[in-house]
Structures are given as C-alpha cells and as structure tokens.
Design goal:
Elements (H helix, E strand, L loop, with lengths): L1 E3 L6 E3 L10 H34 L1 E5 L14 E5 L2 H4 L7 E5 L7 E8 L4 E5 L2 E4 L21 E4 L4 E5 L17 E2 L3 E10 L3 E2 L2
Antiparallel strand pairs: 1-2, 3-4, 4-12, 5-6, 5-12, 6-10, 7-8, 7-9, 10-11, 12-13
Length: 203
C-alpha cells in the first residue's frame, strides 16, 4: 500500500508503526513544562482581559455645560477621563480633572489643577504665584489675562488641590467657593481628550 507523503505529496511505502519504550519519568518531565507554559498563557490572557474590562470600566464620560474652561474645552464639548490615572500617580499641576464640587458633592466640575497639597496660592494683579514665588505661574492655556482684583491668598491643605478654570474671567472656581480645596479622593478622573464635536487630546 502506498500513501501520499504529507510534506512532498509523493507516494511513500506504508510501514507498520513501531512501539518505542519511554520511561514514565521522562514523559512526565517532558510534558510538565508544556502544561506549565499553557497555564501561563491562559493566565496572561485572563489578566489581559481583566485589564481591558477594568480600563473600559474606568472611563468617565462627561459633557461640559459651561464656558469656564474655554478655549481648552468649549461649551457642549464631550470629554473622556480616565479613572485609573491616579491609581498609579499623583495629580499634577496643569492636569484637567473631573471632581466632586466641594460645596455640593452631588455636582461634578471640570477644572484645571493649579495648587498642590501643602502649597500657597496668591493671586495678585491677575497673576498666580505659588509658594510666594517672585515669578508668576506660566499659564499658556488661559483664554485671556485675568482682570485684576483685590489680592487673594489661599493655603492648600495636605491631600487637597486648588482648582481654577481656563476662562478665568468667567469661571466659578476655587476663588469663589466656600470650600476652596478639593480632596484627592473627590477627584474622579483625569481628562484625556475630547471626542465630540472635534476629537483631540487635551492639555
């Protein structure tokens, strides 16, 4: 009897299979690494799936109803924020965040972090000064220069943040709140990008 060779397609003479004796210990030794590798791959796949689920489960979707963050975020823009961002790092100055309004935690706000825990924030002649610095904070993101007001001084408690809007002259932010700081655990997400009406990264 002749069979087609699986590799060449040519005929090859059929032969009777031979029994080969292999010690049981050798079989176990050979198979164990394979089983271990399969289990490792399965675990990695499960971990990856969990990460995807967690990542998608930790996205904050928000529509911005006011112009307090213009021109960075326009009225009616829809933005995406990551709830996971601050699981791995601390909030930074300049981050745009979604948080619970400290005067009414049922309301969510979107603002930019200006003051960090333990810092002082002074606003003089329309400029922001951190920790009594002689140089004002560089803020290329604000819509227009702030209209000068009476000097303001704020002290940011530990584990809290001081928030302001980019549209300073039309922003109801920490300068006007009764509770002027936002606790870290009240920050819901770091805003990453706008998806409507014009998609783009935010910074």
């Amino acid at each position: 009897t002749r069979l087609n060779h699986p590799a060449t397609g040519k005929n090859a003479r059929a032969t009777q299979p031979r029994a080969i004796h292999v010690p049981s210990g050798a079989v176990t030794a050979a198979v164990t690494p394979i089983i271990s590798a399969v289990r490792t791959c399965a675990n990695l796949r499960l971990r990856f799936a969990a990460l995807v689920v967690i990542e998608f489960g930790n996205i904050a979707n928000s529509e911005v109803p006011s112009g307090s963050m213009e021109n960075t975020i326009m009225t009616g823009d829809r933005v995406i924020g990551s709830r996971l961002s601050y699981k791995f790092e601390d909030p930074q100055r300049g981050d745009i965040v979604i948080f619970r309004f400290p005067d009414n935690e049922k309301i969510y706000y979107v603002k930019r972090i200006i003051g960090l825990p333990g810092e002082t924030v002074d606003i003089v002649d329309g400029k922001v000064y951190i920790n009594g610095s002689g140089e004002p904070l560089d803020e290329p993101y604000i819509r227009e220069p702030m209209i000068p007001e009476e000097p303001m001084h704020f002290e940011v408690p530990e584990n809290c943040y001081f928030m302001m809007g980019d549209n300073r002259n039309y922003s109801m932010d920490a300068r006007r709140w009764e509770n002027t700081s936002v606790k870290r655990d009240k920050i819901i997400a770091k805003v990453l990008f706008r998806y409507f009406p014009k998609p783009g990264m935010l910074k």
